[in-house]
Write a structure and sequence with these properties.
The protein is built from ten helices and five strands, in the order ααααααβββαββααα. By secondary structure, it is of the alpha+beta class.
Length: 249
Amino acid sequence: MKSNNPFKVHNINYLSPSSINTYISDMPMWITRYLYGVKSSSGASAVRGIAEEFALANKYEKGVFDFNLLDVKFMSLCTESHIDLGDTKTIKERKILKDFGKVIDENFNHKNLVAYQEKVEVQFDDLPVPVMGYIDFRFTDKIVDLKTSTRMPSKPTEAQKRQMALYSMAYPDSSVDLFFATPKECKTFTLTDLSQYKDQLKKVAFSIQKFLSISDDRHELASLVHPNLDSWMWSGEMVEQAKKIWSIK
């Protein structure tokens, strides 16, 4: 007999913009991550973003952007994530840390920080689990998410808009900004109308619930789709685990 709460059956206690975006873009990857618990390791570029956010938050506390702290944080995060410090990509990321930091230090100048990495939850009626996320920087009247990239995008992605829509639902009276930094420049996108992305979050959350309700057996759910292991999004470890899940030789 299937449960009235399919999330509980599959040990899912909450959804997030990341999980919802993964479900939209690659259902087999979603199954691999959230039903089988296979996590892909962070890359040096992802660690770079976390380190820059940490150094910026420290500046709000101490008054100065500490570039030595930035480097130490990057190295420690790499070690924690089992990233090879001698790898070419890691070395390259470390070299441009300071350039990112300078752009952020000189241009990210919002006042009155209220919270850093603040956990927020939104509960939809009739959905048994919340949608949860973490706001990078919340100020008295503004939410800002910091993104670092070696190339400046021309516009935010649909996935990023869904992420910011959650924050807007948690704080509907706050404006929402995406602050992008490259080693040479920065750009701010103010997202004024996120209503369709709020609707998307809700629609897909219920779609996930409907999918999970098909079966209490994760193997049966996995059998309904097939992974595209040629996609660059699949790390080596995830590919190996997916081969086991889908019996791919």
